[in-house]
Amino acid sequence: MSSLLVRGGHKLTGRIEPSANKNAVLPVLCATLLSEAPVTLRNVPEITDVLRIVDFFREIGSTVEWDKNGKVLNIDHSSIAKGSGARLPQAMRASIMMIPGLIMRLGTVRLEHAVKGCTLGAREIDPHVAVFRAFGADVEQDGGEIVFKGTGKGEATRMWLEYASVTTTENFILCALTVQGTSQIVNAACEPHVQEMCDFLEACGAKIIGKGTSMVSVVGGTELGGTDYTFQDDFHEIATFLALSAVTGGDISVRNGCPEHFDLIDRTFEKFGAEVTHADGWSRMAGPSRLKVEVNFTAHLITKVEAAPWPYIPADLLPIFIALGVRAEGQMMFWNKVYEGGLTWHTELSLFGAHTLLCDPHRLITFGGDKLAPATVTSPYIIRVAIALLMVASAIDGESTILDADPIKRAHPDFVKNFVALGADVQWMD
Q1: Could you cite one Gene Ontology molecular function of this protein (predicted)?
Q2: Span 288-338, pLDDT tens digits
């Protein structure tokens, strides 16, 4: 694992063009398996999980051409041999979204039972199994693997999810496109990256009704064509650079083609005394001279940030706001309603001198405003936590080290390069 050496205390200033959203790029890559026609994808980031999927596509016989400098990826799956074997990549959870396309093409797919991803706690596979079975697939365990087999008996269905899961919603939509008739999912996830996968599929000829809402209908059985699709800017990365400006007292503008996704994010920044402005396709944070937690009108309650499925604040963004919380004067409660393992890293913040209290696996209180000191901290395998630790280190005069910071590379290919361009003193160390 690589580490980051950070010499903090610099106000970051400048303009940034963010990369595409990993959580949109990976599902779209998986969705390309549903089409026999060539597909061109633009603004594709060179990140770890994209590399793994591209390697896998080549292994099963797809034709892939990737101009990494131009961020253009050309994919043609028509060359996949019908008898190809498919044992999915294990180092990323997105593998599970290749199953609908591979079942349609190959009939049988194998997946390691303990499919990996960020270390956020228990992430069950049962909702996905329920979706595959609902569309006619046989799902069985074979030792340490799960075997998915197509039966040719799939038909349209209606499913009401217990939880608005992003990947389960995406798998339902992909499966629904492989059968005849109209399928409906209730309590669907509606995150921007789910909508973006739907945008791509519609560009290929799919008919999807209700994207961005909790009830989505999918008309299946239509042969999908090719398309030329450009990914949107990643709202996670946009919010992260705005937070970096706030925590260092800097002035950063970030390109943002979808400011309509930022109403609640903007309101959350305001809880720390930081204001975002949007104009002419750019979002700007002129960091305040000090961060201070907004006091509730109901004064006996602690001001809080609640993270849950969209349109709540995304759980993936909670760590960057926790970084603001340890810098801001006052108390703030952070409530992760999604992952029970998403807050355990708070002990690393204490190495900087931060005062935090973990109430239970889902709720954390920061008591900010204390003077912090440089430290060596270790990141868990969670993308935005590595960035949050980097944020705190950047706001402290002196030299800090973020050990095991590699998760950043899973989502942001140019993050450190952009960080340095803004005036930060940071470098990778092996």
Answers
A1: UDP-N-acetylglucosamine 1-carboxyvinyltransferase activity
A2: 999 999 998 888 899 999 999 999 999 999 999 999 999 999 999 999 999
Q: Please, what CATH class does the domain formed by 22-230 belong to?
A: alpha beta
Compute the distance between CA of residue 42 and CA of residue 56 in angstroms, rounded to an integer: 20
Class of domain 3-19+233-429: alpha beta
CA distance 367 to 35: 52
Instruction: Return d(Cα 296, Cα 5) in angstroms, integer.
Output: 38
What whole-number distance in Å separates Cα of residue 272 and Cα of residue 295? 10
| Dist CA 89 CA 52 (whole Å) | 7
pLDDT digits 0-9 by tens, 209-219: 999 999 999 99
Q: Is the preceding peptide bond at 89 cis, omega within 30 degrees of 0?
A: no
In this structure, is the dihedral angle defined by the CA atoms of residues 176, 228, 38 and 94, taken in order, positive or negative?
A: negative
Strand partners, 146: 111, 141
Per-residue exposure over 379-403, b if at least 16 CB sit within 10 Å of its own CB, e if not: bbbbbbbbbbbbbbbbbbeeebbbb
Asked if 154 and 178 touch (Cβ cutoff 8 Å), the reply is yes
